[in-house]
Design brief:
Length: about 600
Amino acid sequence: MKPRHLTLAFIAVMGLAPLLLPTFQVTLLNYIGLYALVVLGLVLLTGVGGMTSFGQAAFVGLGAYTSAYLTTTEQLPAWLAWAGGSPWLALLVGLVLTAVVAIALGAMTLKLSGHYLPLGTIAWGLSLYYLFGNLEGLGGQTGISDLPAISLFGLVLDKGEKIFYLIWAVLLVAIVITQNLLDSRQGRAIRALKGGQVMAESMGVNTFRAKLVIFLVSALFAAVSGWLYAHTQRFVNPTPFGLHMGIDYLFMALIGGVGSVWGALLGAGVLTLLKQWLQDWLPLVMGSQGNYETIVFGLLVILMMQRMPGGLWPLLARRFAQSRPPRPAPPEAEALARRTQPAKGELILEARQVTRCFGGLVANNAMNLSLHAGEILALIGPNGAGKSTLFNQLSGVDIPTSGDVLFLGQRINGIPSRHIARLGMSRTFQHVKLLPSMTVLENVAIGAHLRAQGGVLSSFAHLERSEEARLLAEARRQLERVGLGEHLYEEAGALALGQQRILEIARALCADPCLLLLDEPAAGLRHKEKQELAALLGRLRDEGMAILLVEHDMDFVMGLVDRITVMEFGQKIAEGLPETIQSDPAVLQAYLGVE
Ligand code: ADP
Ligand code: MG
């Protein structure tokens, strides 16, 4: 069965469920739907963006309490009176409030790295939880009761079987818009976060903004779930919004499979049913009441994570993936706008007295360098000479201690690399940085990020379709240009190392640069691959591209480049044509170790 038919069959079964199942099981399905909505946000945040959050339950609480307060309080403050009484208005207020809180919390915590971010999420999860329990007007630990039911087109959703349809419709919409988001330019930028901040930024992605976007979306999903929960139960108290539940949500995401939107549903379903089942059966088996289910549940979760670190969904998906027919290449589309390229021979890049100190160590000492359009310059030197340090300063990853870097005549010291990328500089990495489980085509399309505008909202509904087609067509063109046209839909991680390096060049070319910076592009390549790479770089030069490469392989460099700059101990020791460098005594001494 095709995935689309599977989805339709799923919708049909769910549509019939409340008519056929006993009330108790419909209630269970309602919970699964509500949980899945929160977990979906975690799939975005943790699975796609690589950020772990224990604090989602607090956002659920924010949505729930806002609506509970607004729909039950008799005398609202005058400025809020307009929002009283109607769950729908309360939803609106809840979403705005959640957005404000999420942006404030995100701005404070998303810049934290390593363990600090999860710890930060625990901190805010706890504080919001205690706020719910202590705030006057929210009913303390007893909570708020007698919430009105939601009405929709005159229908009062006052029973589990009725609100079931709203819950699952909302969940389905959320799944679809999440999927759409991930399949878009913005989605690729978000997924690029996992390839490392440096890579994403150098492709023009504002990584902080990308993080904030998924943080916000996941918080809003949680708030909607809380709103639905409050009006399903018609009662709220702080318990379901505590850290305990925040951890359960994370478990659901991990068990279901944090890498896929359907994993959210699967994880919520499996964990909810498992808990229910343990609660029913364990007392019978153990012969007594004793909360054994918590212990057994914990053990089962650990076991599942150990056995299936990717979660359950990938196991299911693999069965269907095999029967999927090969996809056709993305069709030709109107080409993206190109920048006006500098004329051949024009000065593109200049380093003036660039010095970089790490404490007492002078890694670059008054380095000068210039590069012109239609020229290939190689930067060579023994290990530790300072090549990568210089490379990082030229590409905006690092800032010179003193001296200037000029790109197209503009001083770029200290400018973020995503802005430099926009000016027309593009790079590859010494240690390949790509998204191994993403297709070759999508990886390369990340390179074209800065050539389009499609925003988050338009990608929810795929309104940027035509732009997206142009981006994918561009990625395909660049892949064909570098000779990887046969591999469009393979997983990038499945390519040989040499091909992955070529992929990075295609990704860099997608940005329509006038300067390519390549850090050891020939490392790990076989002889024939090196020849092909040299031919490709030669063609690019002839088209007027300026290319700077850091390279170890002398044979590769000698046959290809126009000029060579040799470094040792952070300084330039020679510069000139390959023939002269080859016989320069200082170079032979330093680089080749020849006396
Ligand atoms: P190359 O790329 O030519 O092998 P590098 O630029 O990586 O050399 O390193 C030049 C020198 O600077 C080395 O001695 C290295 O240990 C030092 N170095 C590089 N980066 C840092 C850093 N972030 N902090 C401290 N020392 C560094
Ligand atoms: Mg290096």
